[in-house]
Amino acid sequence: MTDSSIIRAAAVQIAPDLASRAGTMERVLNAIAEAAAKGAKLAVFPETFVPWYPYFSFVLPPVLSGREHLRLYEQAVVVPSAETEAVAAAARRHAMVIVLGVNERDHGSLYNTQLIFDADGSLRLKRRKLTPTFHERMIWGQGDGAGLKVVDTAVGKVGALACWEHYNPLARYALMAQHEQIHVAQFPGSLVGPIFAEQIEVTIRHHALESGCFVVNSTGWLTEEQIASVTPDTGLQNALRGGCMTAIVGPEGRHVVPPLTSGEGILIADLDLGLITKRKRMMDSVGHYARPELLHLVLDPRPAQPLHLDGAFPSQPETGSPSDGRPDLLADESDAGSADRASDQRTAILRRAAV
C-alpha cells in the first residue's frame, strides 16, 4: 500500500439480532454486500456485534444475569467456526478487509474479541480486549499483549482497540509505534446516553490527531423494541439509548464525513493515505517528535497461557546413584555445600579483622 493510495472505507451501524447468532450473522453478511456495492474495500462492525453486545449486564444485577449470561455462552463464536468461515468467504468474494467484533468462546470463558480478515479471506489478527470495563468484568476474561499488533493488509497497516482501551495511552502508543495507517475502533453504542457519544468522539479524534492516522469507528444500534426486551424498567431503558458515534476521522482529527449518531446506516468515505505523511511531517509522535532515550514503552507480546509444557525431561541416573533417582538432589546438596563453605570463609575473615 503506497502513501498515495485512496481507500474506500465503510463504518457500519446496525442492530444485532438479540435472539440468535444466525440472525446477527445474516445482518453482517448483508451489510458487507451493501458496503461492497458502494465500492468499500474496508468494512468495520461494532464491538462484540456477534451475537450481540451483553447489554443485559449493564442493567441487570449479577444475581439476575445468569440466564442471559449462559445464553450468550450458547450463542458465542468459536474461532475458527462456520461463522468465521462465512466472513472469510465474504472478504474473498468482495476483495474486502473486514473487522468484526465477536463474543469469542474459548472453552469455559468468553472474550471481547476483534477479528481482522484480509481481502484474501485470511484471518490476520485475533485480539482480545485487555481489560473489560466495569460491568463487563462479570462477562469476559482479559486479553494479553499478543493482540497489540498492527497487521499488514490489502488496505494498509491496520490496528484495532475496543471501547475504553482507548483510554489506555500505552495501549494506543503500542499501535502508534508500529505505524498504523488505519486505526479501527469499536464501541457498543446504545449505551449510557449522549455523554458516551461525546466521549467517543473526543477519544477517536484525539487518537487520529496524535497518531497521525485514519480512525474508522463503528457503534451498534438498538431499536426501541430491543431496548424493551433487554429490560421492562422504563428508567433503566434510558441507559440503553444514545452513545452512538459511528465516524470516520482523518489524521488532522477532523471528520471525513458527518458522523452517524442515531438509526441504522453505513458511512462511506475515501481515505487518502497521503494525508498521513502531511500530518507526520509536522508531528510524528513515534518518530522525530519522540524522545525514546527518555521515554519508551516496553511491551510483552507473549500470549498468556495457563499451562506451559517444557518438553525437556532430565535423564535418569545410573542404577545405584546416591541421588536415588533424583538428579536435582545432588545439585541441591552441592549448592548447599558451596554456600556453607563460603559462609565459613566470610566468618573467618571477619574474625581476623576483629583481632
Q: What would you note in describing this structure?
A:
The chain is built from ten helices and eleven strands. By secondary structure, it is an alpha/beta fold. It folds into two domains: 6-282, Nitrilase/N-carbamoyl-D-aminoacid amidohydrolase (4-Layer Sandwich), CATH 3.60.110; 314-355. Helix 1 links the parallel strand 1 and strand 2 (42-44). The longest helix has 28 residues, at 327-354. The chain is globular and about 55 Å long. The model is unreliable at 319-336 and 346-351 (pLDDT under 50).
Structural descriptors:
alpha/beta; Nitrilase/N-carbamoyl-D-aminoacid amidohydrolase; 6-stranded mixed β-sheet; 5-stranded mixed β-sheet; 33% helix; Nitrilase/CN_hydratase_CS
What characteristic shape results from the CA principal axes? globular
The CATH architecture category of the largest domain equals 4-Layer Sandwich
Count of alpha and pi helical runs: 10
Number of strands: 11
The helical percent reads: 25-40%
Please list the strands of the largest sheet in the order they lie side by side: 5-4-3-2-1-11
Per CATH, what is the topology of the largest domain?
Answer: Nitrilase/N-carbamoyl-D-aminoacid amidohydrolase
What top-tier CATH class of the largest domain fits best?
Alpha Beta
Mean pLDDT: 91
Order of helices and strands: EHEHHHEEEEEHEHEHHEEHH
Computed CA radius of gyration, to the nearest angstrom: 26 Å
Q: Strand content of the residues, in percent?
A: 15-25%
Low-confidence stretches: 319-336, 346-351
- CATH homologous superfamily classification of the largest domain: Carbon-nitrogen hydrolase
Structural category is alpha/beta
Distance between the termini: 79 Å
Number of domains: 2
Region (Disordered): 306-355
Protein name: Nit6803 family nitrilase
Domain CN hydrolase: 7-273
Pfam family, one: CN_hydrolase
